[in-house]
Amino acid sequence: MIRPTGIKLARAFGDAPAAPAGGARPTGWGRGCGFSGVLAVCATSLSADNAADTVAVPSGQPLDLIEVLADETPGEMWARFRFLAPDVARDLGRIDVEIAHQDMEHLCHGFAMDYLARHQIDAARIVISLSDRAVPFGEPDPQATQFFEIYRPEDGHCIWEPY
After folding, report:
1. Taking the CA of residue 142 as centre, how many other CA atoms within 13 Å lie in the half-sphere pointing to its CB?
2. pTM for this one?
3. Does residue 162 sit within a domain?
4. 54 found inside a domain
């Protein structure tokens, strides 16, 4: 079950890009995989959504929606959907980067696009992230395992954006 906790506004300090040039992954890791180490941010609550949403993902892993962030720092509106996904844990997890990619693509098409339409949010990019533990946005946690992908919403579809 995915339980939304609300929409927040993310503000980063400085003019750094959302993802560094060449991607945000350490050498030796697959596409979209990395550990938290982003800019410090402050988040302001915009609204709450207490309705429970259930989304089945291809892997069958349990997911909880940690938060939805509306981020204008990259110079355009990015909607960030942050999910708690304990099965991506590096030591005990059963979800690797390829399976996580399939789940994130499904979440973009089957959850994020509907969420944006329901809340009338016009986003230039959608970021889907899966983390094995709740990590506050922008705070580093070297022990956390996180997967993320960026999509461009176009004609009702999610187009994967390589970074």
Report:
1. 0
2. 0.71
3. no
4. no
